[in-house]
């Protein structure tokens, strides 16, 4: 086999050494964006327990699902089913796998490309008696490698790795959003069950009132209008029961679809249960930057945009390609693998763009602007996250006070209904006053259930605002 000329080997070795020692990467190194106005505490956290950041690892019970404090087995089963069967989660998981494949494809650029070819050709030249026919058989093996002298591939890999991490956080953000939506719909469903139970109790109470009114009318102590009023009140409650059944069915269908089931495959019977109201999870504003997956998505997109600046700047530098090929060429198959048929080629190629009409400058400017946009989007997302958390804390505080006040309203309304009913039995008042008192009690009790629903939903929203206990994976 032919040997490499000595006068060619020294420059080639110098090129290879330069490639091996080259570790530079053009473009700015990434620095996480900062928010100068990040507060040290939440405005509406007064009265709630908070903790300071710590360095030791979390205890085992802190890694439990975020919905565990609600202590509802049915809710727990539905949320676990969502993670495994939701089409939305499956789509996000597929996007994550796409990001993994894209990163592997980018990293493949660091490796050389090897190819092989084989061919046969029959040709003629001349005409008539002077014509000659020749056969050409080839068998070649080639390899080429483009060393990453200026860090273009490293920056592309850096961007791909950031996009992969963003995709993982995006998956967590979608899963958390779907879980929070399912939990809130489940809470509404259970409140509907309690409201239906309340209306059923009220229906029985109104039946007794109607019977009392009829007795008073038969005895001459009440007018016919009182009987009609009692009947109207009873039928109104029955109409509300029918409307409530339709609303409950709609919410149950939503829960089924969120869990990845067809509506006909889920039947949540009324069991009188209600998730517990959990304590407010401790958190500091700075922890949102690592606990909320949507903020991690925004921050990783900033890192990817920063790396793409280096990719754009690398286009200004020449590209070196090292090529090596070898094989056999012969006019007959029998002599194809003989030593005289061996051929080889080795050499570098340096290519650069001398003029492109400003395309590279425009690409760099575009990359810088995209990075600035991503950084501004991250700051906007952080401010929105702080607002969501403050809103949830403020709403929980207001609802806690409202629940206590509404409890007093219910107690007073029930006492007033009892007194007015006794006065009606004694013939001191008309049934209109009884109806007003009964409707006041019903409205107060339904309002109390609404406050309970709002407190549970606000608790879910607060947990989601704090990231739902999610933590990004560390490489």
Automatic annotation (TrEMBL):
Keywords: Lipoprotein, Membrane, Palmitate, Signal, Transmembrane, Transmembrane beta strand. It is found in: Cell membrane. Its main location: membrane. Transmembrane segments: none annotated. It is a lipid-anchor. Pfam families: OEP. It comes from the Bacteria. PROSITE patterns: PROKAR_LIPOPROTEIN. Gene3D superfamilies: Outer membrane efflux proteins (OEP). GO terms for cellular component: plasma membrane. GO terms for molecular function: efflux transmembrane transporter activity. Residues 1-25 form the signal peptide. PANTHER family: BLR4455 PROTEIN, OUTER MEMBRANE CATION EFFLUX PROTEIN. Belongs to the outer membrane factor (OMF) (TC 1.B.17) family. This is NodT family efflux transporter outer membrane factor (OMF) lipoprotein. It comes from Azoarcus indigens.
């Amino acid at each position: 086999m032919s040997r490499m000329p000595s006068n060619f080997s020294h420059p080639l070795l110098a090129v290879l050494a330069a490639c091996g020692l080259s570790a530079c990467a053009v473009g700015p190194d990434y620095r996480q964006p900062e928010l100068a106005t990040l507060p040290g505490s939440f405005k509406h956290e007064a009265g709630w327990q908070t903790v300071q950041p710590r360095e030791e690892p979390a205890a085992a019970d802190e890694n439990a699902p975020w919905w565990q404090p609600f202590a509802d087995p049915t809710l727990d089963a539905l949320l676990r089913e969502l993670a495994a069967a939701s089409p939305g989660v499956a789509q996000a998981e597929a996007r994550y796998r796409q990001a993994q494949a894209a990163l592997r494809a980018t990293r493949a650029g660091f490796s050389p490309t090897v190819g092989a070819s084989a061919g046969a050709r029959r040709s003629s030249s001349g005409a008539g008696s002077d014509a000659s026919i020749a056969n050409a058989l080839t068998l070649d093996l080639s390899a080429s490698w483009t060393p990453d002298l200026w860090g273009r591939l490293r920056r592309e890999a850096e961007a791909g790795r950031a996009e992969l991490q963003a995709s993982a956080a995006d998956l967590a953000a979608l899963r958390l959003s779907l879980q929070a939506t399912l939990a809130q719909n489940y809470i509404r469903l259970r409140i509907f069950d309690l409201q239906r139970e309340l209306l059923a109790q009220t229906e029985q109470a109104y039946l007794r009132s109607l019977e009392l009114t009829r007795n008073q009318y038969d005895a001459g102590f009440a007018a016919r209008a009182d009987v009609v009023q009692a009947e109207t009140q009873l039928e109104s409650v029955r109409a509300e029961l029918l409307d409530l059944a339709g609303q409950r069915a709609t919410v149950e269908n939503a829960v089924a679809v969120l869990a990845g089931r067809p509506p006909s495959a889920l039947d949540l019977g009324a069991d009188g249960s209600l998730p517990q109201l959990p304590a407010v999870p401790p958190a500091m504003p700075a922890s949102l930057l690592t606990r909320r997956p949507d903020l991690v998505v925004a921050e990783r997109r900033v890192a990817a945009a920063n790396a793409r600046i280096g990719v754009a700047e690398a286009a200004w530098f020449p590209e070196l390609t090292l090529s090596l090929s070898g094989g056999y060429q012969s006019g007959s198959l029998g002599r194809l693998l003989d030593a005289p048929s061996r051929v080889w080629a080795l050499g570098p190629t340096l290519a650069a763009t001398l003029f492109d009409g400003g395309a590279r400058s425009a690409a760099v400017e575009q990359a810088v602007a995209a990075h600035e946009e991503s950084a501004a989007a991250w700051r906007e997302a952080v401010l929105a996250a702080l607002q969501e958390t403050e809103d949830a804390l403020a709403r929980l505080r207001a609802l806690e006070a409202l629940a206590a006040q509404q409890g007093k309203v219910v107690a007073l309304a029930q006492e007033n209904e009892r007194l007015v009913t006794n006065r009606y039995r004694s013939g001191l008042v008309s049934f209109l006053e009884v109806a007003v008192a009964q409707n006041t009690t019903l409205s107060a009790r339904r309002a109390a259930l609404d406050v309970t629903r709002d407190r549970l939903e606000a608790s879910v929203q607060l947990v989601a605002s704090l990231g739902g206990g999610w933590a990004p994976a560390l490489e």
